[in-house]
Design a protein that fits this description.
With 359 residues, the protein is an alpha/beta fold. It has twelve helices and nine strands. It is globular, with a radius of gyration of 20 Å.
Length: 359
């Protein structure tokens, strides 16, 4: 495993550090709770079930979607958010240890979410914290909540095509060495029978060897090209090259100055309905070796479904930590006051991008 196995399964009052805390039943319970929260995520209702609770959002590495979705999720449930971003604006810049940071900040809140560039750092914070801690990404280690929203999205996308996660074929392409989203995704999907992975990465960015030392390594097939990886795949999961984690200049220089996946490659090697996923951010600059934006009008594009679903999944995580079930949540729903105001005018969307509104 990417981290040591966590003894306590995820549940009420527990930290969420690793995908190893889940079994199939607990994952399905979380997804069922996320389903029940969709009307709240669509702003059909307001909720104050976490009124009086405080979240400390500690992000010591750049983040947009993860940080804002965690903070939005807590706010949708009626809680308050304290936030800090970057080392420059924290006492860690003065040499404060993670232990001291955990002990101090946990005295101000009821739950903490943390992202940190060093693998294992979130577990270290959790060990010293007085309140539950959620891992929002620890270096090249794990990103368990991203894996949860990815599997939740994949489950819904496959169901829309009359398919199941069990027995599905997932092509994973891009940076498999430093891509913590990939590590957590593979770990979590081990809970589903018959799932197979077809892997492609640039040289020196291969999936870590430890994944091939496991008893179910037969699920992993290393491919020599994107086209080979796409053969027979139900979904393709793209990851950008984590250039900020690459210290070897020769490795950095060897990365192709081209596109990782574009429309022509999808249409040549698979159907246009191929489910296309990406944890984002997507590097849209020329020569970035990432997912091209010319796939954005393909019906299988699901990258914005992932971001939308992240709100529901992270609300479900907070509800689980605070011991709230669907019945308690529904009892707290009210009609938002702003619903009686003049409707907000929004520009019409077109093409596959409109899918983002169809939660």
């Amino acid at each position: 495993m990417m981290n040591q196995a966590i003894a306590a399964p995820f549940g009420e009052g527990a930290d969420l550090i690793s995908t190893t805390q889940f079994d199939r039943d607990s994952v399905e319970r979380l997804f069922s709770l996320a389903d029940s929260l969709r009307p709240l995520g669509r702003s059909e209702y307001a909720c104050d079930v976490l009124g009086g609770a405080v979240l400390s959002s500690l992000f010591f590495e750049p983040s947009t979607r993860t940080r804002l979705s965690f903070e939005a999720a807590f706010s949708y449930l009626g809680g308050k958010v304290l936030t800090t971003t970057g080392f420059t604006f924290s006492s860690m810049a003065k040499g404060e240890s993670i232990h001291d940071t955990a002990r101090v900040i946990s005295g101000y809140c009821d739950v903490m979410v943390m992202r940190h560039p060093d693998k294992g750092s979130v577990k270290e914070l959790a060990d010293a914290s007085l309140v539950p801690v959620v891992n929002a990404g620890d270096g090249a280690g794990e990103h368990p909540t991203q894996a949860l929203l990815d599997v939740y999205t994949l489950r819904r996308e496959l169901a829309n095509r009359n398919k199941a996660v069990e027995g599905s074929v997932v092509a994973i392409i891009g940076d498999l060495r430093y891509g913590r989203t990939v590590h957590s995704l593979i770990d979590l999907m081990r809970l589903y029978k018959g799932v197979r992975f077809r892997l492609y990465s640039p040289a020196s960015l291969e999936l870590p060897a430890e994944f091939f030392e496991r008893s179910d390594a037969h699920r992993l097939t290393v491919c020599n090209s994107v086209g080979e990886a796409l053969k027979g795949a139900d979904v393709v999961y793209c990851t950008r090259v984590q250039r900020e984690r690459i210290t070897d200049e020769q490795v950095a220089a060897s990365i192709e100055k081209s596109v990782l996946l574009n429309r022509d490659m999808v249409l040549e090697h698979n159907s246009k309905d191929l489910i296309i996923m990406h944890p984002l951010p997507r590097d849209s600059r020329p020569g970035s070796f990432d997912l091209s934006d010319d796939v954005d009008d393909l019906p299988g594009l699901s990258i914005f479904h992932q971001t939308d679903n992240g709100l529901m999944v992270r609300m479900a995580i907070f509800c689980t930590i605070f011991g709230l079930d669907a019945k308690a949540l529904k009892a707290s729903y009210t009609v938002p006051k702003w619903h009686s105001a003049k409707p907000i005018s929004r520009p019409k969307l077109h093409g596959a991008v409109r899918q983002a509104q169809d939660w």
